[in-house]
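**User:**
Make up any protein.

**Assistant:**
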Amino acid sequence: MTISTVGLDADDTLWHSESHFLVTEQRFGALVSPWLPSEEAAEKLLTRERANLEVFGYGVKGFTLSMIETAIEASGGAIPAEALQQIVNWGKEMLSHPVDLLPGVEATIDALADHYRLVLITKGDLFHQESKIAESGLAERFHHVEILSEKSPTHYRRVLDRHGVEPSEFLMAGNSLRSDVLPVIEIGSYGVHIPYGIIWGHERVDRTELEPSWHHLDRITDLPQLLGTLV
């Protein structure tokens, strides 16, 4: 086996993301507390987000619209306009939040770039993802950047076909088993799970067994060493 191409996820793999969603979700829970307990509000919001994925896709904008819908439903339409405006303001804050790289990311990417073709593969709102990638200062270190609407086996196959990469030559690393690991294993590639401290409910999967093509790392800085053992 020779790995020629390494894919890296962006949100919560290269920089912090879900922590910003969690802070806003906690604010939302307090906002709708006159009508719903915080735990129930979080459950209803997640249900609404999942239902809206096919309409709004992933990202802050869909999250914000889902909060508005959940608040209206939870309050029976009684929530005041000022509160809905507050939700919109939170969304704007999230969209303008500075990019905060995770420890060791730049050094790891530089080490990998000497030996592999690097592809940044993320999903979500095109405009916001492009903005974060540009602000991160990492774009020029990658051979290609792919912003997908979804991360499924079909989407990964299309990326590899577009760049002329065989599945057996590809390894994907990211914080989500659902999006970054299991789909690439299904197409015959290699997945590396690098967990982040927080994971969105939609990304959770009940999967604990390890496969030969699935590896776990505690931190991204261990990735070059792992790749060295796979050559």
Observations:
- Residues 5-16+100-230 form a domain with the Rossmann fold fold (CATH 3.40.50.1000).
- The chain has two domains: 5-16+100-230, 18-95.
